[in-house]
Amino acid sequence: MVTNQVRITDTTLGDANQSLWNGRLRLEDVLPILAKMDRAGFYSIDCWGAEIFESLLQNLKEDPWDRLKILKSHFKETPISALIRGRSLVGYKNYDDELIKKFIELSAKNGVAIFRV
């Protein structure tokens, strides 16, 4: 018997942050809910990459790499997913292959398990 399985990726810390809070959702604002999100049974939590990276640097003056490490330390059961914009990664210009490879390696090393392109 074939069973179809629905998997849900939570985008609250990614798309909702961008759409509802203009990318200004601070880490201290989300820390209290992270354990509950981790236990909710999501397939993944999309919380890094694309617009998030730039917003952390420009709007919140947060280090995106530090934020990723902290999120990973709270998401023990649920994989982190990240949106990357193809060759432009998390920015708006195309990067060379070596930089892309290094960025992906560092992202994975620091907690990203699923990359959406």
Question: How do the strands and helices of this protein lay out in sequence?
Answer:
Blueprint: E1 9-10, H1 12-21, H2 27-30, H3 34-39, E2 44-49, H4 50-58, H5 64-74, E3 80-83, H6 97-109, E4 112-116
Parallel strand pairs: 1-2, 2-3, 3-4
Can you describe this structure in just a few lines?
With 117 residues, the chain is α/β, with parallel strands linked by helices. It is built from six helices and four strands.
Overview of the structural elements:
InterPro entries: Aldolase_TIM (IPR013785), PCB-like (IPR055268). One of its GO terms (cellular component) is cytoplasm. GO terms for molecular function: pyruvate carboxylase activity. The structure is a single chain. The protein has six helices and four strands. It has a single domain, classed as Aldolase class I (TIM Barrel, Alpha-Beta Barrel). Helices cover 45% and strands 15% of the residues. It has helices spanning 12-21, 27-30, 34-39, 50-58, 64-74, 97-109, and strands spanning 9-10, 44-49, 80-83, 112-116. The protein is globular and about 45 Å long. It has a four-stranded parallel beta sheet. The model has no long low-confidence stretch (mean pLDDT 91). It starts with 8 loop residues before the first strand and ends with a strand. Strand 3, helix 6 (97-109) and strand 4 (112-116) form a beta-alpha-beta unit. It is α/β, with parallel strands linked by helices.
